[in-house]
Amino acid sequence: MIPTPSARLPRLLAVVSALLLALTLSGLAACGGGDGGSEDVDKVLNQTFGGGQKIDSGELSMNLTADLKGVPTVTEPVTVKVGGPFETQGDNRVPKLDLDLSANAGGQSFRAGVVSTGTKGYVSFQGRDYVVPANLFSQFRRELRKQQRSSNKDTPDLEALGVHPRDWLKNPKNEGTEEVEGVETTHIAAGVDVPKLLDDLNELLKKTGQLGLTQAQRQQLPGSISPTVKKQITDSVKQASLDVYTGKDDKILRKLDVKLQFDVDKKLQEQTSGVESGNVRFTVQIANLNKPQQITEPTNARPLSELQSQLEAAGALGALGGSSSGGSGSSGSSGG
Fold first, then answer.
1. Residue 79 burial by CB count (10 A; 0-12/13-18/19+): exposed, middle or buried?
2. pLDDT in the model for residue 85
3. Whether 74 contacts 65, CB under 8 Å
């Protein structure tokens, strides 16, 4: 039996999250430097994605909208939003951050979040905060240090993960200067080399163990993208564009804007729960770059074990990315 659209939603969001992670890391690893005087497209892009100058703090905003046609139960666009402040803490230290996530699809809504003070961690679910146990936070810290040692860098390294955003761009053109969050940027518009993007996503999926995901989270991600699926996705994408907005003076990425338009072959629509076509747009933006951020510890947070017990009692653990033993996709996960 083919899973219902609601049963497919968590896995879809997991894949989208991996792609958004690649784009976000490309922004957080973006470099500065250069003479600031040349606006040659290749030089600007190489400076922006070449790695070097750090982004120490800022306000991250990611938005995904997917307008899907052909699924009666999905009458409004699927939306996913992630945003909030972050601030690095230097070598071998967990960064401070306060990120909120919200998602809506097929009449279902989901709210969650994560807070790190650098020494403590918290998660939120549907508006209530929970404390991450000290042993789990220490485990995350160890994984972060391990990743830093393996890459010999203090920040996540895209090259080590096999992700090369610079190579995704086709026929880039300089569209002049535009203001983004009060900063003058150079706007570069380009097409997207979909096969190369999928190749990088494939490498990222193969290395999810390096991203600090739990086993349950890794189980929600496909282990790889097969050549057949890669061709199907490539053939389905009819139009793809990527706009880069990089600081005119410092060549630090301020915004990415990706747009995809696709049509699914009729022979494949049964595999996509009837999705016939759609438009997908997601943006990644960083504001208040390298300015102090206000990140506070939640008050009245409950033990994380309470949330785990509630999810198990409600039978929602599988729908939220937890381990599900039996698995019939017919459970519907309507409680999410």
1. middle
2. 93
3. no
